[in-house]
Design goal:
The protein is an alpha+beta fold and 174 residues long. It contains four helices and eight strands. The longest helix is centred in the first third of the chain and has 16 residues, at 19-34. The mean pLDDT is 86.
Length: 174
């Protein structure tokens, strides 16, 4: 079991990564997503990365590939999702929802020589079709330091909801 760093830093890929550096990365990602800049968002991933949203009955330690997922994208599906969301074919997001993301409680933990885990809490407010919904949960990311900055190897959004409300849609990036 990995342990959470109490110092707010991890050693990875021959360098020290600090919690403020990771927080800035996550805040920048939230801003990119709130502005629907999906090309910039995709650039935050390393080639071969995954994007996952397990179902609301997910429990830590379960594999979302085996227990069910709202989203279980490999690299090719992630690229296809971005292409679709940028097109007019994304009817559920044409026009785009208005979103506002809050990220907090960022914690780093050791993973391997070239990657590390990040846990964080999130709230995503979404306004769409006269509705205002809040999606809450936590992130479980695997990050890789590169010469160009941090990159996602795996990005997982775990909802804290017991279930999604009738009519709730995950047609945007959570």
């Amino acid at each position: 079991m990995t342990t959470i760093s109490n110092r707010g830093l991890v050693r990875c890929a021959g360098r020290t990564v600090t919690r403020p550096e990771v927080e800035d990365f996550l805040y920048a990602e939230a801003d990119i997503l709130d502005h629907w800049d999906y090309d910039s968002w995709l650039a935050l991933f390393e080639p071969g990365a995954r994007y996952e949203i397990p179902t609301t009955d997910y429990r830590p330690g379960w594999s979302p590939h085996e227990t069910g997922s709202f989203v279980d994208d490999d690299w090719d599906l992630l690229n296809a999702r971005v292409k679709r969301l940028k097109s007019r074919k994304a009817h559920a997001e044409n026009p785009h929802s208005r979103t506002h993301r809050l990220v907090s409680n960022v914690r780093l933990s050791e993973e391997s020589e070239d990657s590390f885990r990040v846990a964080a809490a999130f709230v995503v407010h979404r306004a769409r079709d006269g509705r205002f919904d809040a999606y809450v949960g936590w992130y479980d990311h695997l990050l890789v330091p590169t010469e160009d900055g941090l990159r996602f190897r795996s990005r997982r959004s775990i909802l804290g909801h017991e279930s999604l409300a009738a009519g709730a849609r995950l047609s945007f990036i959570l």
